[in-house]
Each structure stands twice: as C-alpha cells, then as structure tokens.
Amino acid sequence: MFRYLRTKWVFPFLLGTLAISAGVWAVAWRAALSPLSEQAASELALASDQLTRHLFRYRELAVVLAEHPVLRDRLGGEADSEGEADRLLQAMADMTGAHHLSLVGPDGMVLAASGEGEAQVDPRAPLIHRALTGALGVEARFQPVPDRPTQRIFSFAAPMHGQRDQALGTVVARTDLLDFEENWPSTAAALFFTLNGKRVFAANRSELVNAERPREGFLKNSASRWTGHEVWTLDAGPYLPDRAIHLTRDLPVIGLTGEILLDTAPAERSATLLSAIAAAICLGIGALLLAVGERRRALNKRLRMEAAVNARLEARVAERTTALSTANADLVRENRERREAEAALKKAQADLVQAGKLSALGEMSAGISHELNQPLMAIRSFADNGAVFLERGQADMAGQNLGRISEQAGRMDRIIKNLRAFARQESEPISDVDLAQVVDQALEMLAPRIKAERVNVEWRRPDGAPKVRGGEVRLQQVVMNLMSNAMDAMADRVHRKIEITLAPSTDRVTLSVRDTGPGIDQPDRIFDPFYTTKEVSPTEGMGLGLSISYGLVQSFGGAIRGRNHPDGGAIFTVELDRAGAQEAA
Hints:
By secondary structure, the protein is α+β, with helices and mostly antiparallel strands. The chain contains 13 helices and 18 strands. The strands form four sheets. Strands 7-6-11-10-9-8 form a six-stranded antiparallel beta sheet. A hairpin with a 5-residue loop joins strand 1 and strand 2. Helix 8 crosses helix 10.
C-alpha cells in the first residue's frame, strides 16, 4: 500500500518541481535584465555623447571659419584671396581631419574648397538654404563611392553674416563617419545610429552599416516585452548575439537615433543556474521526504537516541552561544578602543598643530624681541624729552612726545595681539574670515625675518577682497608656513622675492605664494609628513609644516597644491570656499 501511494505521488511531484523551476527561471531572468538594461543605457549614452562631440567639432569649425577674414575677402570678390582661401581650407581640413571644407556664395557657387568637389550647389537645398537664411544648417546623407561601401557624410553649414545680419554666404564642413567608426572604442554590445529611424548611418559592426533598420529587415528579429524590457531574438550572423536587450535613444541635436543590442547570455546563464538550483532543492526535498517516509518506523525505535543527539546539539548550541557572546564582547571592546584611538589621534593632531605654531614663534623670537625693543627705546626717549619740555614750559612739544609714545604703544599692542592670537589653540567652528587681513597679520609677524634676510615681498592686495570659510588662527598658520618655507628655500639665493596674490572667483578664492628659490624636487611628496629637503635639526624643523597646512586646509573643505613655476621657483596655491557661496547656490 505504501509503495502504491509513493508511486502515485511521484509524477505530480515532478510536475510541481518543473513548474517551480520554470517560475524561478522567469523571475531570475526578469531580475537579471534590469542591470543589463542599465548597462546598455549607460553604454548607449556614452556612445551617443562620443558621436555628438565628434560631430560638434566640425560644427564649431564651420562657425569659426565663417568669421575668418580670408574667407570674407574671398566672398567679397577680391582676386588675391582666391588661392589663399583654398590653401586655408585645405590646411584646416588636414589639421582637423574634416572630409571636405568649402565656401559657398549666396547663388550656390563654390568659391573655395579644401579639395576637388562640386563647383555649384543648389542654394535651395535644405543645408545651404538654412544657412543662407541665417541659421545653422545640418545634414546627414549617404553618398555612393565607387569600389567601396556607401560613404556617410555629415555636414554643417554656418552662415556668414554681413551688415544688418544679412547672410552673404556659408561655410560648409563635412566629415566622413568612417573616421569615427575606425576609432570607436571596442565594446561587446552592438551599437548603431539610424537616420530617420530607418537606415543605419553609423555602427560599430561593419555588417550593420548601410543596412535597413534592424527591426524591419536585416536582423530578422522577433521582439518580446513580457519581461518589462524589449528583448530581441536575432538571426544575424556570428558577430551579433542570438538574443539581446534593445534600447533606443533619440539624438534630436544631430537628427539621429541611437540603438544598442546587448547580449542577454549572462542573464540566461544566471537564470538557468538558479532554476537548476531550485530544481535540485525540490528534488532533494522530495528525496528527503521519501527517505523520511521509508524510515519512519525505524526512527520511532530510535527516539531515545534522538533525544541524546538533541541534548548534545543543545549543548553545542549553548557552547556556540557562549562563544558568540564572548566574540561580541571582544568586538565591543575593540570598538571602544578604536574610538579612544581616534580621539587620541585627533588630540595628537591638535597638539601637532599647536607645536608647529609654537615652533614658528620660537623661530621668530629674536626678530620679535627686536621689534618690541625698538618702540620701548623710542618710548623711553620720548618720555625723557617730554619731561625736559615740561620743565621748560613747552607743553605743546611735550604733547607731541606723548602722542608719539601712544603710537609706539599701539604698535607694541598690535605685535603682542597678533602673537597672542597666533599662539592660542583655536577651537571655534569654521566661520567667515578676511583672508587679506590674515595675510597682513602674517606679514606683520614675519616682518623682522623678512627685513633681516632682505626678502622683497610683493603683496598684491585686491580692493574689497572677499571673505572665505575657515578659521582665522589656523589660516594664519598656513600662510606663515608657506612664507617661512619660501624664505628657507631662498636662503642661498642672491635675488629673494616672494609674490603673494589673491584671486577671487564666483565660489572660490585662490591664494598664491611664489618664491624665487630652486623649486621642488618631488612635487608629489611635498605634503607627506617628515618629508623635507632641509637637514632635520631643532632649527630647521622636521618637515611637518606643509603636512600640517595640508590637514588644516582640508578641514576647511579647501585644497592646497604645490608645483614648480615655469619661470623658476615654486608656487603654492590655496583654494578656499568663498563666504556665502553655498547659501547663494
């Protein structure tokens, strides 16, 4: 009886397995077509852009030549310009790879050309007529050529305007699509562009060129849309797939339609594999159920053994659970240690920035002491003179000395204020900063060294310089690092000059610092930590200045670059976001 029931259910089970396998194949097939469709759309868009850019080169060539004085002189009837116009067009055709360039008068007469061609064209032809009416003419046509496939010529006609926008003639630029096809990047997909939706005008498969539109003859296909995508079944030779996903893209700018056929074999293989796996699972489940039915009685006798096995399994599960809990605790600890390490790294970076500023202050200490000593001596001298003037009853002279004492005290206050601002650790968020004022402050702090080393600083401060997004103290450190490095690089030079420029644009502001030193040996390594061309010592630094500056500028959302200037020396540029640019956008 049991064997009869088993045989009775085998056939329905096999039918169910086949139905499930077919369903899995259909679902997997449809799912795999979506990424193929996206890939096909991307490749078609790329090929369309490449063709459009290639053709637009000749449109721009026609527009530029329409303004050329030699062609205008030829159009005006000057006899001396006839040969010169032909030579000009031939030279431009050789340089640009144009198939043919010609100058056409308002009556259709070809006045100059880059080679042999028609001496007269029909001025009523759409290409010429449109240009003579003041618009840009565009034409794609097939041109029979002996002993070779039909030539496909794409033409642009640019009008030549006279006074009051009157069209005096036109410049016609023609290109052969074969040149584009020979340099077409290789791809597995079949790409072609049809003219008026009927005839193939350009393709990356030679068997498609000049053929009727594949849907209507050449490929003998049948299209399927039940998958949500247009899938073609093809019979077009060994170089085209048997089944492919088809997409189109209209290019109204050049009057063509782009089409692509991407092989669906990968999707079919994926769907077949998943279908086979589903069938194998179903068959495995059926075999398992059959085995379970066969051994049901035997298993009843082994309940105790199963209970023991279950107990062992539960013990193993508990053991694995404990191991997982331990691993989870380790992960939590590692995560906490990683966060602590990140916090320590941020603190070390902040300490490194502050150390760089203190190092710079130490290098400037001698010059700053001299700068402070001068106004102190002046104050003492003015005070002594003021006392003498008061004893003599010359109050006005004493008042002048007091005014001079006030000026010197203000000078000392500015120096100390700049040093105090530079030395402090800036923890405030990014704000709007006057970059020109930052440069002025840096120059004021470096003034003693600039004067001692006889450096000529040319600071082109623009009127109404815009503000940038950043931190004032940190930006000041960046500017001082760049200027200090520039003076270090020019230490052995007789002519020492630093040029500082500030160039604002719509959304960015560029600060440039150029020196007359020997330049940069390895420009791609200048921002690496500890990289320096100077001897590492307490007085020369450890090569961290540019690395710190790089990190500071990056934290503001800007960019810093260094390169050798063509006229000698090195030039560093810092690009920062202009204040208010993001809000305006």
